[in-house]
User: Fold SAM-dependent methyltransferase from Rhodobium orientis.
Amino acid sequence: MTSLSHAKFDPTRAREYAEQARIGLAGYDACHELSACVLSAALAGAKERRVLVVGAGGTAGEITTTARLEPSWTFVAVDPSEPMLTLAQAAVEEAGIGERVSFVRDAVSALPPEPAFDAALMIGVLHHIPEESDKARLLEDIARRLRPGGSLVLAGNYRAYDSEPLLLAAWANRWRLHGASDEDVQAKLARIMAGAVPPESEEAVAALLAAAGFSVPERFFSSLFWGAWHTQRET
Assistant:
């Protein structure tokens, strides 16, 4: 993430992230499980794989779930937010996989610019990056660090929020269902609308990936504004 986008994940917001993420994304755990399953299927063959996890802070769900499915894989978790990365480290230690995960508090661009990874996971990151050029640069940075043919599982919100009023109203009802008042719901939606800029369409996601050197993405999960795709670095 850029310095501007990761700064909003302060200690207070980091602490509430796990609960709020599961309300905000219906199917949060299912998305992480399917991401692990798809990545495992795409990389079937050699047992030992090295996986880059981008924006890994928070629950570390993508790491703990994938590590449970693939006990020989190792992970490099990158996140510029110290509070979020601290939470991820705690989750990894609790899962008993600390020796398989390295943590880097920085951007992907700070990693050595060489194809050192078999795959990458980036869940819930792209829509937090305001500028289109920064979205493109991050995907390019990931592509450079993947081996030719390496897999990327990308998940996040797509479509402008005000373009789908029915979905936006349903999203508001998710918080109401979990006890939020009307005032709290409006405050949450206002914060989302002001602080997140998703790609405008699934076609826009595909275009960003193509420009970074990835193949046509295959969507395997969807929930309101959220989608998850598998793609590969072109050889």
User: Anything to note?
Assistant: The chain has one domain: 3-161+197-232. The radius of gyration is 17 Å. The chain has a mean pLDDT of 92.
